[in-house]
Amino acid sequence: MFTISLKVYQKSKRLNAMIRINRQTDYAIRVILALAKQGDEAMLSTSQIQQEMLIPKALSLRVVAKLAKGGFILTYPGREGGLKLARPAVEINLRQVVTHFESNFTVSECLHGGGTCPFDHSCPVRCRWARLQALILQELENTSFDELAREAASVVDVVPLSIAQAET
Question: The domain containing residue 117 runs over which residues?
Answer without folding.
Answer: 3-167
